[in-house]
Amino acid sequence: MIDWNAHLIIGPIVLPMIIASAMLLLDERRRTLKAALSLSAMAAILIMALVLLHESANGAVGGGDTARVYRLGSWAAPYGIVLVADRLSTMMVALTSVLGGCALIFALARWDRAGPRFHALFLLLIMGVNGALLTGDLFNLFVFFEIMLAASYGLALHGSGEARVRAGVIYIAVNLTASLLFLIGVSLIYGVMGTLNMADVATRVATISVDDLGLFHIGAAVLGTAFLIKCAMWPMGFWLPPTYSAASAPAAAVFAILSKVGVYVVIRLSLLLFGADAGASTGFGLTWLFVGGLATIAFGTFGLVASRDLSRAAGFGVMISSGTVLASLGVGDAATLSGALFYLIGSTLACAALFLLAEILQRGRESDVGEARAVFDDEYRDPFDDEERNEPGLVIPAAVAALGGAFLICTLMVAGLPPLAGFVGKLSMISALVGVGDAAAWTLAAVLSVSSLGALIGLTRLGVGAIWTRDEDAPAFVVGAAELTAVAALLGACVFLAIFAGSALIYTDHTAAWLADPQGYIHAVLGGGGR
Amino acid sequence: MSISFLLVVILVLPFLGAIVASGLPRDARTSAAILSWVVALVSLGCLAALWPMFQDGETLRYEIPWLPSLGVNLVLRLDGLSWLFSALILGIGALVVLYARYYMSPKDPVPRFFSFLLAFMGAMQGVVLSGNLIQLVVFWELTSLFSFLLIGYWHQNPAAREGSRMALTVTAMGGIALLVGMILIGRIVGSYDLDVVLASREAIQTSPLYLPALILLLLGAMTKSAQFPFHFWLPRAMAAPTPVSAYLHSATMVKAGIFLLIRFWPVLAGSESWYLIVGGMGLATLLLGAWCAIFQHDLKGLLAYSTISHLGLIVLLLGLGSPLACIAAIFHTVNHATFKASLFMAAGIIDREAGTRDMRKLSGLFRFMPFTATLAMVAAAAMAGVPLLNGFLSKEMFLAEAVASAHTHGLNMLLPALATLASAFSVLYSLRFIHATFFGPPPTELDRIPHEPPAWMRRPVEVLVALCLVVGIFPAVTVGPFLKSAAVSVLGFDLPYYSLALWHGFNVPLVLSLIALAGGVGLYVVFGKRINANPRGGPWGWKRLNGGWLFERTMTGLFKGSEAMVRLLGATRQQPQLRAIVLVALLAGGLAAIGAGLVIRPIMPTLTLSNWAFAGLWLVGASCAVAAAWQAKYHRLAAVVLMGGAGLASCLSFVWLSAPDLAVTQLLVEVVTTVLLLLGLRWLPKRLETIRLPQAMEKRSRRRRRIDLIIAAAVGASLAAISYAVMTRPSIEGISRFFVEHAYKDAGGRNIVNVILVDFRAFDTFGEITVLGIVGLTIFALLRRFRPADDTLSNPSQQSVQDASDRDHETRSEGDTLKETMLIPRVVMRWIFPFIILLAVHLFLRGHDLPGGGFAAGVALSIAFILQYMASGARWVEERLAIRPIFWIGAGLVIAALSGIGSWLFGYPFLTSWFQYADLPILGRVPLASAVLFDLGVVVLVVGATVLTLVALAHQSLRKPKQRDNEEGELS
Amino acid sequence: MMELVLALAIGVLSASGVWLLLRPRTFQVIMGLSLLSYAVNIFIFAMGRLRSGAPPVLAGDVSDPARYTDPTPQALVLTAIVIGFALTALFLVVILAARGITGSDHVDGKEPDA
Amino acid sequence: MTAAVLPWGLGLAQLMLTCAMGLAAWRIIHGPRAQDRVLGMDTLYLNGMLLVVVFGIRTNSQLYFEAALVIGMLGFAATVALAKFLMRGEVIE
Amino acid sequence: MPYPILSLGLFVASILLSASVAPPSLALAVLLALLAPIIMLALGVGRVRVKWPMAIVRLAIDVVGDIVRSNWAVSHIILGRRRHERTSGFIHIPLDLSDRYGLAVLAIIITSTPGTLWVEYESATGRLLLHVLDLVDEETWVRLIKDRYERRLMEIFE
Amino acid sequence: MTQADVPAWAAIIVVALAVIGSALSLLGAVGLVRLKTFYERVHAPTLGATLGMALVLLASIVWFTTVERRFMPREILIGLFLTVTTPVTLILLARAALFRDRTDRVEDTPRKG
To answer: Listing from the earlier edge strand, what are the strands of the sheet with E127-132?
Structure first.
């Protein structure tokens, strides 16, 4: 009776929401049921994402790229809100579901019991991310950003403890400020354009009156600032490493995608609104994206090299990866962007894996465990106490080797060394940059290479410190099967991506081409349908 | 199956072996060795099977697509040169495996060692078999990686960790440079395919990118081949197990750089810059390595520096740029691999048997292990370039080239002399190696009596030494064909004339060779004692110019510098972060405004009384806001009240400016926020104005405040200007027209704002309530772990005073004051409860047509609950009403979601609304809209989330006494 | 007139808000965020231009857009109010938790070094 | 007549109410006691509510009734909370 | 109907809120009048018994008159006409009324009348502390409160 | 009925009520500022909260009754609720002030019991 395929695109948003809210109706102690529910939800989302991905990879029936559009409430765009699944958003949704799934599996080992309502918050975070990726409406984007952020506040503070709360205050303050900037930007754009639909705004950009142009640009600039805060661009991203490294590992892992949502939006809007058809606005802000991206890479690299613990390094890794994509976007070349998109996937997966690994490797050395536990002394029980399975898992014989291998793969990915996906990304970016061949491109290529080296040096130091510098009689690493599965899955995805890099690159090439010509998107969104 | 499939076999087999070996149990030393041995031999067999093809200089290719869009595919390409290198890798690999089986201790996880070794072998194979530049880089970096793992194999040893990190850092740096260089070459040529590149000498050499590409490529090659000034990692890498040194640091990895130079020799060599850089580095390395080798006390250290020196020799040959020199280079590469591997193995045997590698402790070992000693002597002689051994032949070729090129270039005048000097050094250290170890009195400082090693451990050395001899005596028969095939694949078919023979007649090179031999012996006789006595094991006058030391300083500087940069460019505290954000936003807006111009066209104000009233209203609002900003530090309550004032002003503006819905909602939220802030104020410390900061801090903070004030004023001015600009602009024909026109017709509501919220843009509302729910959950989670600060643990002073005064009166009992005070408020607040419910129901039901709606109704309802809490306390309320806010949150979300999904049943997208006028008996015509159901979800959720937030906070006071009891209990 | 007043109001509210936002005490920051959200709410609202006495509630069957003020910004403000309220509550609880755990109400969780 | 009286009269009323709000705000800002501030806020709310009612008359619109009612009925919740806080140091016990 | 007065009040309020006497509004009003008091039952609020409905009306009229009068008086005070001779202060009034609803109504009356303020009531002694803006004669105030309001409230509620 | 159709007498009544009510409110606010002690100041706003409010609400009732040509006494609700709720705040405030004064041992504070 219901044409499920027609509603497929909203699945990644509504499904986690329904499951999460249904979980709220359940008693907190029914953990197995909740775990099963959220796992199956994530699996379902993954499947939906893959179906969408498959569809967009193969293009429309008649050939050529198009986007799947879903008109909420049957109202036609630009009046109602639309969801748009095009190459870019589908790719990001698929990435989110892979990442989310792995983080969730990791959490099942013990983190989901470190505080109430973990699963609900987690699924709502996924909902927020997917919504932000899929929506085609500026204000709706704000709403989903807020869902994503609200859930991320919850997850960042999940498990409480001094470091988390301390970092959380700054994280929330910064993001609330960003949200206000977001609102100012969106409303200013509405004030000049009279519309909120991205595609509709795009159609009006070229014909905007001279009087309004300045206001529109201010709006776009402020809006961009808000997104760039989320991307953790220098000098607005100092909150990221402390927050992510303080957060519980699965939360940090899934947070790796949050900054990428910011990056996604910047890519989306800058190419949609300021593309070749934008008249006087063409190329607006690209220079600043480039400069900011470079600064972010540089700062992230310094930070990574200077890091003394792994999760912090992973946080800086996230910054580097954001900066790389932003700077590549700033170059304004489709081939570079294609490489950057590929790199984005790989680096996100790698940073997430690094967060997970960091937690395993730092386990037992955590100095703030005592402090964190002190917080729990009240009438509620210690979250880890009431479980029969207190420890995260079993001592797996080859744990050190497995972890070492995993760490090695992460390092290769983050540093962009061969043979994994990180390398392919950097390779395609650099070769595209060499093709562009202007001073900016050379600079970026150089910075990318140096940053690779920096990442390698920093991570090697940390890895040698964490894995090799252990006493012979030190207790073996304790790893839960779920944790190992999660890490293996993430790294497996990296390997998979490397093996099928050819197809993936073709996908990103087409994506970059699709983004470079926003007419396809605009036609898909505004072309007919709805009340 | 095509024969080129064998290429895949010899590439993949080592990796497969590595995977299998890594899965073997920890103590499976022998099986891992056998596995590795079989892998190496089978690969070697395959290679041998392919040999017939290459006698004629053919090329074999096998292509697997990988990244077609980048022109990067897996191309396996075998020609004479790569065949030779591949044979070297596999052959010496097989010998090393055999040797390692006996060398490695059973206590080590040996299978892992073999796994790494095989993986390294595979990576090396990948380098030499690459037919694609990028693929070459991939395997190149893999060799760095596996060498890192192999060097750091004994990671309990700090030297091993440091050495491996250094090797990885240096070689990976080279690898990254190489990658960029390859990309440049690919850019010049238009393809990454090796065959295409090799055919494009002209294009490459004339390209403006030639020099950068060359430098980057050389960076890769020179770091790998430990050329000065990147040589320092190699001696540090001696912390590796000896089989690793024998394999990586003599025969294979360091030769990867050489291989690269030879591979690209046809297209890159011949230019001035090539000559200067490659030749210069080679020469410097040759001399420096030899010089340093002389002074080493560690056997492996000596071998490492001698390796550096010999690699320098090969590089120098390649740098000379003449085809003959190139052939000599290839030849010496092979020779060096054989004698150096055997020497390393011998050193390992000595280490294993004597327990030390320090030449000062070793002495007269010949009597304990004559066989090994003989082997070592032959190998050392080959290294020294003694006739009848292979080293002699290639050294002769080198000297000949040095002499021959002395006329070609001005700078080459010294070359013969320097070459001879280096050869003399080489003789000197070879002699020292042998003499100090095997001759002289029996050793005194050993903790064990040395023996001959197990026979099978010696076998590999024997094979290699035999090779040295055979090649040395019958070069043309043994190595000739292979060398020729390799040379052909580099130089093409018109090879220059060269003769592989022991005796070329009495000529200049021979004289130089003899001078070098005699000089070396002579030097040892004169200086040997002093060298052995030199305590530091480094050359004289050699302290600061030590690459390793510099490298470590650089690394420390890098870490320290990065920390400094992070401190300088970053911020950990909140204030600078927010300041940066605000400034960036200002700057971004400002730049945009400058770029496109901000046009403001003021309109004349109309001065009516009502407008003055509006202005007055905002005079109040603005002064409240400013006062709140001013009071928020010390008078928090005042700030809360003042905020309320500013809030009220904005509510009234909404009334004024035709937004009744906004006014109602903002008012309700205002009330709840006030209660919320007050609940929070309970847990914040009292701040007193009297606390003064130190003078210096005061000054700094005053300056900061001044800056902040300027920033704040700038933000205010910009926002005011922008908003004024927009407000005075004519309205834009936008989407709103549609909403006005269709709200009633198609969505059945008169209140357009509400229709937008529950229908046109219901998805926003859907998201918004989700935010509310999430926040509720988060607050709940946080407060479960809430621990109040010590100074807020006790009851507020008011309560303690009042309770105390109650206790002091005999007629009163504790809590009477509270009861009496709240007597009247309780009555009012309880009886108003049903009326607020009434109001909420009205707001909800008529929201579609009149101001109100689900959110307003929900907040009103929750205020009703909160009033009860305030009046009677949390316990009283919760004993009577089952408050399950989380359940409500869940229920609200489920209702909202299901009402959205409902439209799927009718084949419409999510949240498609439906409305109808129903004629009911008695009641008449009643509008029914499905959006009401959605709004119901909103109400339920809002009540749940708001009540949860407030109540969870309120509950903290209830928990507090319990905690204090516990603490008192612990104290007593 | 109203435009000018409202623009100035936005200016003053946001300036006060930003000033507080940049202060070191958590309570000041939360106050600043609240003031800023007032400013932003009014800003959003102002983007629909100002109309007095033309509330967007349809009277009769007339739906002549010229008779009503722009309803869209109002809907946006409503959403923004709700979200702003929720996040203020959340931030408040977080600063309370931070105050409890760190013992300080400084935004960095510790008093500045002298 | 109506057209002349209404704007002036009601404008005057509005202006007076605004002045009253201003005075109340003065009291809030100046204190000196916390109770004074709360009292000022109560007055502010009251006058605000009256302002809404007068505005309703002026624009001949009943749509603002809810706003006035909400202030009248629920505005006291805020001041009660403040007063309770002053009285007991805690809003909800 | 556990709380008839409340239900009546709710019914009227609902009608007023709807500003309509159309059948749907009436139905809603009845529904709410019947359902909303349930929450009072849940809260366990005691029922109110009122004896003299007419007394209520008379009291209300008097109160309105008092309010108007004291408005006038207080206006004078504020405008500063009688600043010098005026003293304000606290007075204690012993109350016999003990019904909480009666007390509540009394508190509302006293507080709503400008010039008098209900400050403190001690349930044990029944003593009420009042603040009066224009305290000329303490005894007059005590009489006024006791005779004019308290007695009539006791008639109604007790 | 639109604004202009309202008869002049009604308009005058409405305006008078509104102006007097507002004036009373203003007077209350003046008292809030002018009176010397807190206990005195509490009395002042009651002017606006009782008669002032009532007059303004009456103005509204008269106005809408005239405009709609039917009795529109909705504002009574506001009046009732305001009357009932104002004392709650004032009692609590006065009581809090009293306690504060007792703790601080301010002169002229009535003793307890």
So the answer is: E89-94, E127-132, E116-122
